[in-house]
Design a protein that fits this description.
With 301 residues, the protein is an alpha/beta fold. The chain has 2 domains: 3-133 and 188-299, Spore Coat Polysaccharide Biosynthesis Protein SpsA, Chain A, CATH 3.90.550; 143-173, no CATH class. 40% of the residues lie in helices and 12% in strands.
């Protein structure tokens, strides 16, 4: 591999809702002169510790993006994601753009990561649910979901749940079908991705034109990027095409069988490090600090 390949730059887009030891570890592991880090701290985080984070990252570029108040199930998450992507493509031209959460960690060191992605250069790393999942998510976009922000993740607000139920019943009675005259199809999978510069620029350019179709979609963060890419020339560049529900399609280890998702623990270390994945989520030092420390020590050798 030549010098040019080794020095190709990567952009990391991190969406964090709190300042944690896991986020600190993530920033330290991404601190490499070949990286730029674009960090979004949710507006609900009252102590974002910007100055401290700046002191942690001395080799990579660290850029704090406009802060949003993210609400589960609403478009706020995707609007934030697209804003971060737009900021990154404006800043420079990167070999890959990686979207991570503040509870993620890499499973390879920076030399290994840059080599791994360069060897697969031109591939788009996106996860897609099974064929049955693609059919099931039709209910998320074929009618209007007006009250996702009010309902929230816990779904413990009876008034707004009832309002949503009535709204959907009325739409069914009126035979509302938002997809009736669409010239494209919706697709879904995990939010987290690693995409090329050309694909990132395409997503940013075409998102605005599709936003009228994306409004009032339920849990848009699991639909937006997949829908744009699958209705583009980049659909032929997927690392793992098909509806496989395999998280290696986005180069990640994520376990929804044991949790929502599962929080990795020290007993999972060998499994993770031999998985072949580049990143994993999620980690929480309040649940298990030992695995976070062991991954850091292993990758920083």
């Amino acid at each position: 591999m030549g010098t040019k390949a080794i020095n190709a730059k990567h952009a990391y887009l991190i969406m964090a809702h709190e300042y944690t030891d896991t986020l600190i570890t993530l920033l330290k592991l991404l601190d490499d002169s070949r990286n730029d880090v674009f960090l979004h701290m949710d507006r609900k985080c009252t102590e974002p510790h910007f100055t401290e984070m700046k002191s942690l990252v001395t080799k990579a570029g660290l850029f704090f993006t406009k802060r949003y108040n993210i609400s589960w199930g609403t478009n706020s998450m995707v609007l934030c994601e697209i804003k971060m992507l737009a900021t990154a493509v404006k800043k420079g031209s990167y070999e890959y753009y990686h979207l991570l959460s503040g509870a993620d960690l890499p499973l390879k060191n920076q030399d290994e990561l840059h080599k791994w992605f360069h060897e697969r250069k031109g591939k788009e790393f996106l996860h897609f649910g099974l064929e049955s999942y693609q059919q099931d998510i039709a209910s998320r976009y074929n009618v209007y979901h007006f009250f996702m922000k009010q309902i929230g993740r816990k779904r413990d607000k009876p008034f707004w749940l009832q309002a949503e139920t009535y709204s959907l019943a009325i739409q069914r009675r009126l035979h509302i079908d938002r997809t009736r005259n669409l010239s494209f199809h919706f697709y879904g999978g995990a939010q987290w991705f690693s995409i090329t510069d050309q694909c990132a620029r395409y997503v940013v350019k075409h998102f605005k034109g599709l936003y009228s179709h994306f409004r009032f979609v339920q849990i848009l963060d699991e639909l937006a990027i997949q829908t744009i890419v699958m209705n583009s020339p980049f659909a032929g560049h997927l690392y793992m095409p098909g509806f496989l529900n395999d998280y290696m399609a986005c180069a990640r280890a994520i376990d929804w069988e044991r949790g929502a998702p599962y929080c990795y623990r020290i007993e999972d270390f060998d499994e993770l490090m031999s998985s072949g994945a580049c990143f994993a989520r999620k980690f929480d030092t309040r649940e298990d600090a030992e695995i976070v420390s062991k991954i850091y020590d292993t990758l920083k050798k």
